[in-house]
UniProtKB/TrEMBL annotation:
<dbReference type="InterPro" id="IPR036890">
    <property type="entry name" value="HATPase_C_sf"/>
</dbReference>
<keyword id="KW-0067">ATP-binding</keyword>
<keyword id="KW-0597">Phosphoprotein</keyword>
<dbReference type="GO" id="GO:0004673">
    <property type="term" value="F:protein histidine kinase activity"/>
</dbReference>
<keyword id="KW-0547">Nucleotide-binding</keyword>
<dbReference type="GO" id="GO:0005524">
    <property type="term" value="F:ATP binding"/>
</dbReference>
<dbReference type="InterPro" id="IPR011495">
    <property type="entry name" value="Sig_transdc_His_kin_sub2_dim/P"/>
</dbReference>
<feature type="domain" description="Signal transduction histidine kinase HWE region">
    <location>
        <begin position="155"/>
        <end position="241"/>
    </location>
</feature>
<keyword id="KW-0418">Kinase</keyword>
<dbReference type="InterPro" id="IPR011102">
    <property type="entry name" value="Sig_transdc_His_kinase_HWE"/>
</dbReference>
<keyword id="KW-0808">Transferase</keyword>
<protein>
    <recommendedName>
        <fullName>histidine kinase</fullName>
        <ecNumber>2.7.13.3</ecNumber>
    </recommendedName>
</protein>
<dbReference type="Pfam" id="PF07568">
    <property type="entry name" value="HisKA_2"/>
</dbReference>
Length: 351
């Protein structure tokens, strides 16, 4: 086993140290250099162990020979920045005695470059600021894009509402000019259904929304439209509503449902009656929205075997919104429609 003395251990440690360390004479000839120094100063070690000279390096404050002479007789460290072209080595120098009492030598070691570290940190900060500025710019562009998209969506809702209203008006006009009662009834029914879809878009347009509808507003406006176009003066159409917000995907079939139930009551409930009353209510019951359409008339027609018959489209529309519908008879007829509320979906775009 090989035993190393303290000098050998120190030499090994210095050779592997990341801080550049070299010893030069007063002419700049390199007498010792570790790997870090050879790399920093671009020195090449020959077979005899010599590593060239640092004469090719200069200083900005004084000539290299002057620094070496000053450092050789100083026991304090003298800071120095060595330059060669675009290269720079931040170091310090001080004197050291030569063996055998010869001319003093100069010990040079590198030091951490505070300026370089500061510049590096400043560069990183600038890059981060650029990234933040880019993020803010993209965020603003995205917000502007979303705002434009919302405006376009609201404009589309407005135009669809107007177009549906025109189609409904044309159908009503055609119904009035038709000489066939069956054709007239069919045209009025189609116009009423289209009008109910237009009401959904009208509620969206009034509230500057594109995704959610207040059920209370929807029921009130549906009743107002039916009262104007289909309901005779002898029948009172009354609404009692409670606010409930639903997504437009639910509001569209819901509007058709309410339209079907109310128009069916107008058509069948008051045959032979001088007057009548239809009450439409909306409320929130737990996790469900409940809509009731009740009349005080003679009742609705039954199926072939006496079972209550739902108005056309009702069953399909109830399935579409995932709800249920019940018919209660007594002093008139009451339809009770229940369907699940979905607050998370409905409030994705707050009113």
């Amino acid at each position: 086993m090989t035993t190393l003395n303290e000098a050998q251990i120190a030499d090994l440690a210095l050779s592997a140290h990341p801080m550049a360390t070299l010893v030069v004479d007063l002419d700049g000839a390199v007498l010792y250099s570790n790997a870090a120094a050879r790399n920093a100063f671009g020195l090449t070690q020959d077979g005899a162990g010599a590593a060239g000279s640092i004469e090719g390096w200069g200083l900005r404050r004084m000539p290299l020979p002057e620094l070496l002479r000053a450092a050789a007789i100083s026991s304090n460290w003298i800071p120095a920045i060595f330059y060669r072209g675009d290269e720079a080595v931040h170091a310090r120098a001080r004197g050291m005695r030569a063996k055998g009492g010869g001319a003093p030598l100069v010990l040079i070691t590198s030091v951490a470059d505070a300026t370089t570290q500061f510049q590096l940190h400043a560069k990183q900060i600038r890059e981060l600021n650029m990234q933040v500025a880019l993020y803010q710019k993209k965020s603003m562009e995205l917000e502007e894009s979303v705002a434009v998209s919302k405006v376009l969506e609201r404009e589309l809702v407005h135009r669809v509402k107007n177009n549906l209203a025109v189609v409904s008006a044309l159908l009503n006009q055609q119904a009035r000019s038709s000489g066939d009662e069956i054709v007239t009834d069919a045209l009025k029914s189609a116009a009423s259904r289209i009008k109910s879809i237009a009401v959904v878009h009208d509620v969206l347009d009034r509230n500057q929304q594109t995704e959610v509808v207040n059920v209370a507003d929807l029921v009130v406006q549906l009743a107002a439209g039916i009262r104007t176009t289909l309901c005779p003066p002898r029948i009172a159409l009354v609404t009692e509503t409670q606010m409930a917000v639903v997504h437009v995907d639910v509001a569209l079939p819901l509007a058709l449902l309410v339209n079907e139930l109310v128009t069916s009551a107008i058509t069948h409930a008051f045959v032979g009656r001088p007057r009548g009353r239809i009450l439409v209510t909306s409320a929130v019951e737990g996790t469900e929205v409940e809509i009731r359409v009740a009349d005080d008339g003679v009742g609705h027609p039954s199926g072939a075997k006496g079972a209550p018959r739902e108005p056309r489209l009702v069953a399909a529309l109830v399935d579409q919104i995932g709800g249920s519908i019940d018919r209660v008879t007594g002093d008139g007829t009451e339809w009770v429609l229940r369907f699940p509320s979905d607050p998370q979906r409905a409030y994705s775009s707050p009113m």
